[in-house]
Amino acid sequence: MTSADQSTPTQPPARRARRADAERNRAAIIEAAGVVFAEQGCAVDVREIARRSGVGMGTLYRHFPAKDDLLVTVLELEFTSWLTAAHEAAAATEDPWEALTGFFEQTLTNQARNRALVESYTATGAPSRVCARYRDAFIDELRTRCADAGLLRDGVTTADLVLLSTSLSQAVQATDDSHPGQWRRLLRISLDGLGSRNTEPLPEPAPHADTGA
């Protein structure tokens, strides 16, 4: 058998070209969807996404058979990108309190620019459980840094901060059209309440509702 016979067969050029075209189409769909979802929210018509991406509806549905498939893909990418940037910013910030407040500022600023992301965040907390775990672990890290430095009010838990983030996201959604930027006032009020100078004991958290039969 010759060396040529032993070589691994190469993929036919036509097949490689089709695969490259499919990858470009998928990337174009995701890029366009990111822009359209950010502008118009989760309820947007996918025909607008197909139009902006320059592909036909058949091509869009081959890559994403259901609109929710595309939405989750886009939101997971956006969510992960935002959290990665926030984590890098916090790691580069020596002051624990500045790192915590910077996280909230960055979170809400990002959500104010992305209607679909804030709709998802307020509805489910995160596009997926993996994203939620990543976010919660990061918030816990920020909380621990502030608590260890004596900067955080006694009794504040990671769950409190996660819920605060979600609640402020709802404020972004509720005031974006009528009072843009109003969330900044609410954020400042909320952050002031987290400071260690507030020594009044916090109410005990309500027990989880019993979901059993």
Description of the structure:
The protein has 213 residues and is mainly alpha-helical. The chain is built from ten helices and no strands. It has helices spanning 3-6, 13-40, 46-53, 57-63, 67-91, 96-112, 115-124, 129-148, 158-175, 182-194. It is elongated.
Report a brief summary of the structure:
This protein has 213 residues and is an all-alpha fold. The chain has helices spanning 3-6, 13-40, 46-53, 57-63, 67-91, 96-112, 115-124, 129-148, 158-175, 182-194.
Number of helices: 10
Arithmetic mean of pLDDT:
86
How many strand elements? 0
Main beta-sheet annotation: none
The sequence of SSEs as H and E is HHHHHHHHHH
Strand coverage percent: under 5%
**Helix content class:** over 70%
Shape: elongated
Radius of gyration of CA atoms, rounded to a whole number: 23 Å
The chain-level structural class is: mainly alpha
**Terminus-to-terminus distance:** 71 Å
Low-confidence regions: 209-213
